[in-house]
Each structure stands twice: as C-alpha cells, then as structure tokens.
Amino acid sequence: MTQVLVLYYSRHGATAELARQIARGVGEIAGAEARLRTVPPVRPEFEPARGDGDPASGPPYCTREDLAECGALILGSPTRFGQMAAPLKYFLDGTSSEWLSGTLVGKPAAVFTSTSTMHGGQESTLLSMILPLLHHGMLIVGLPFTEPGVSGTQGGGTPYGASHLAGTRGERAFDEHERALARALGRRVADVAARLAR
Ligand SMILES: Cc1cc2nc3c(=O)[nH]c(=O)nc-3n(C[C@H](O)[C@H](O)[C@H](O)COP(=O)(O)O)c2cc1C
After folding, report:
1. The CATH classification of domain 2-49+57-197, taken from the options 3.30.420.40, 2.60.40.1120, 3.40.50.360, 3.40.630.30
2. What is the per-residue pLDDT across 129-163, written as a single tens digit (0 to 9) for each?
3. Helix, coil or strand: residue 159
4. Residues 6 or more apart from 176 whose CB is under 8 A from it?
5. What are 8-44's pLDDT values in tens digits?
6. Best probe residue, ligand 1, of 6, 79, 158 (max atoms within 8 Å of C-beta)
7. Would the pTM of this model clear 0.70, i.e. be above it?
C-alpha cells in the first residue's frame, strides 16, 4: 500500500474537513491509502504546545516516521494573513534532517487551504506551502482545468491546490465543486504515487 500522508493544521475545522475529503479521494485509488496527521499548535512564546500526548480527538501528531514512510504528502493550512499558519511553518522548520537526508525527494506532493474571504489569499497560501516542498525535492501536483470545478467554482478550488471558502464566521458549507476538487486532488496524488511505486 502506498501511504499518502495528508498533513494539516486546522484551528476551527474547515481545513480538517478539506483533509477528510482529500483522503476520500486517495482511498478511491487502488493500492493507495491516506494517513491523516496534524501538527501541534504553538504558544505565544513560540514553543510547540504538543504537551504529553496526541490531541484528544482527531488524527495524531505527525512524526518523523510518518514522513519517512509516506509515498506522497498533501499539506494543508488555513490562510493566515495570506500565507500558511505558524504551527505548520514551525513543523516544517523542524524538518532539516529530512531535508539533509533527502527523505521526501522525488515523492509527489500537493497543498490545500481554507480562507474566510473569497480573495483573502488562497493562491498565495497554497504557493507558500509549495515553496518548502520544492526545497524538499518533492514533485508538485496541482488540479488541471480538465476538472470542471476549477473553472466552474464560485467558492474554493484552484489550479494550485484544493481550497474552501469558509465565510467570515465559518458559516459557509462546502459546496459541490469544493468537495469534488478535494477528492480529485487526493485521487491525483495517490495515482501518481502508485505509478511511481510500481
Ligand atoms: C490570524 C488570522 C489570520 C487570518 N488571515 C486570513 C486571510 O489573510 N485571509 C482570509 O481570507 N482569511 C484569513 N483568516 C481566516 C481563516 O483563514 C479561515 O477562518 C479558515 O477557514 C480557518 O480554517 P480552520 O477552520 O481550518 O482553522 C485568518 C484567521 C486568523 C485567525
């Protein structure tokens, strides 16, 4: 089984829901399996708030073994001032040994995000997450315009990755295009990973 690591941070749940949709897409590809993981929040003094164990609910925190064992990585974060949230950046800044040893080199990768506003920085956030993945030598997978939702969406869903428009109070439900594109991204990454593993 090719493990597709779906790794994200989510404060209020929108990015977490997007992650679950992507994982469904991964599961639709034979030979591929999604592994959901998250990262700890950070305290104002910029120390990780991992505590003694994993979160009380939801997926466990990502470990070095998860990074080593994955055949692909799909990375998600809410938009914070037009870029990824600090907990995910903090986690990525701790992956020097993976960078040095080439743990992620040649593995496919993709990104996803959630924003409160339509033009509040989905693309810039997705690009901010792509940059460290390129430094890790990963092969970036996006969403092609042959997916009807990319041109038809009235909410999230971009060529750079999956996204969700949550509304200023998180009141906006996922629409049909956002769900379809999240699943398509999961399928696409899993399909590339499975082909590379053959
Ligand atoms: C500090 C902070 C900065 C934010 N910056 C933006 C922003 O630049 N653009 C935007 O549309 N939403 C912004 N948001 C809203 C979140 O991106 C949005 O609520 C997202 O859907 C939350 O995802 P989550 O439910 O996974 O935590 C910001 C939220 C916070 C707390």
Report:
1. 3.40.50.360
2. 999 999 999 999 999 999 999 999 999 999 999 99
3. coil
4. 149
5. 999 999 999 999 999 999 999 999 999 999 999 886 6
6. 79
7. yes
